[in-house]
Amino acid sequence: MNKVANFLFEKIINRCLANFILGLLILLGLWWIGGYLLFINPDTTNFADFGPIPTFKAFPGLWNDGTIPSAISSSSYRLFSALGIAIGLGVPIGILLGRSKVFREVSNSPFQLLRMISPLSWEPIAVIVFLSWNQAIIFLLAIASVWPVAFYTAAGLAKVDPAWFKVARNLGASPWHTLTQIILPAIAFDILTGIRAALGVAWIVLVPAEFLGVTSGLGYSIADARETLSYDHLTAMVLVIGMFGYILDSSCAYAIKLVSYHRGN
Known about the structure:
- By secondary structure, this protein is mainly alpha-helical.
- It has two domains: 1-48; 51-264, MetI-like fold (Orthogonal Bundle).
- The chain has helices at residues 2-40, 52-64, 67-99, 101-115, 123-129, 133-158, 162-170, 175-209, 218-227, 231-264.
- The chain contains ten helices and no strands.
C-alpha cells in the first residue's frame, strides 16, 4: 500500500514539475519571438535589448554591483512593514466586523468608501503628511492591503458555528481564551487567505509608488533603467519583480495549505 501511495505521489510531483517547466518554456519562447521581431525590424532594432538573451546577460552585472540585492532589500522593508501594519489593524477590525452587528452596520459605508479609493490617490496627501517618502510609501501599501485582511477575516468569522461561543461562555471562558482558543484557530485559513490577497495588492502598488521620490527599491531601479535607456537592465528588474513576487505568493499558498491540512485532520 505504501509503495502504491509513494508511486502516485511521485507521479503527481513529476507531472506538476513538468507542467511548471513547460509553462515557463512557452513563456520564454513567446518572449524570444517578441525580441526577435524587435531585432529584425529596422524601426525597433534599438529596443532589441528587451529580448531574453540581453536580459539574462545583464543579471550577473546587476547582482554583482548590488543593484538587485539592494532593490529587493529596500522594497522588502517597505512591503513587510506595510503588511505588518495591515495585519495588525485588519485582523482586529475583521473580528469586530464578524462579532459586532452594530459595528458592522455603522462601519460598512465608510469602510466600503475607503476601500474603493485607489491607493495611489492618497499619494499627494501622504507626501504632505509624512516626513519621508519611505513612510509615505509604507502608508500607501498599508492602506491598500488592510482591506483584504479585514474582510477575509470577517468572512471567516461569519462561518464559525455560534454554538461554539455559547459553549465557551457556559464553560466560563474569558474573552482572551475565546479569542485565542476558538476564533483565531477557526479563522486562521481565512486570515492567511486575506494576507495572500493583501500581498498581491501591495505588490502591485509598490512598484509605481517607488517611481517617484525614493532612490532605492525595485520601482526606482526600473525608472532609473528607463532614464538611462538600459533596456536590458529594465527587463531584468521586471523579471526580478515577477520572480520575487511569485516566491512570496507561493509561500503564502504553502502556508494556507498547511493550515488546511491541519484543520482537515
